[in-house]
Amino acid sequence: MSSELDDLYQEVILDHGRRPRNFHRLEGAVSAEGLNPLCGDHFTVYVKLDGERIADVAFEGSGCAISKASASLMTQALKGRTRAEAEELFERFHTLVTEGPDKARVGDLGKLAALSGVSEFPTRVKCASLAWHTLHSVLRGGGETVITTE
């Protein structure tokens, strides 16, 4: 990856980590909690569905810059998508952070590609994927706590 692209990706992560988008409680939504007890990341993800479409999505909680940026970017990427599209995006994102950008078709991931470097740091994968695993729980009905210790 070029140095300029690395710098851009780092700036996106820092921006979303400092000023997360959709960072608030979403009343009347289905929710689930996500916790990584090894590092202290703790988020609640909220989703309002309109049929099979995600009408609104938000999160609140605390975590490192990577986990907060990932949650923020996730909420932006998911609004208006169907449940099936969200699940497919979850799979592609998970491939991105676990196997790297060559395996994940980065070109159409938009700003989510900023987290492609996480694959080089296996201990940070749980940070980047916590909100996504929590979203997965919400889409299955919510109400449970997702713990990423494995």
Keywords:
4 helices; 4 strands; four-stranded mixed β-sheet; alpha+beta; Sufe protein. Chain: A; 150 residues
3D architecture notes:
This protein has helices spanning 3-18, 65-78, 83-99, 125-139, and strands at residues 30-36, 41-50, 53-62, 145-147. It is α+β, with helices and mostly antiparallel strands and 150 residues long. The protein has a single domain, classed as Sufe protein. Chain: A, CATH 3.90.1010. The protein has a 4-stranded mixed beta sheet with strand order 3-2-1-4, with helices on one face. Helix 1 packs across helix 2 (65-78), helix 2 packs parallel to helix 4 and helix 3 (83-99) packs antiparallel against helix 4. The chain is globular and about 45 Å long.
Characterize the biggest β-sheet.
4 strands, mixed
Which regions are unreliable across 5 or more consecutive residues at pLDDT < 50? none
Strand order of the largest sheet: 3-2-1-4
CATH architectural category: Alpha-Beta Complex
Helix fraction, binned, reads 40-55%
Tell the overall outline: globular
Number of strands: 4
- Run of helices and strands: HEEEHHHE
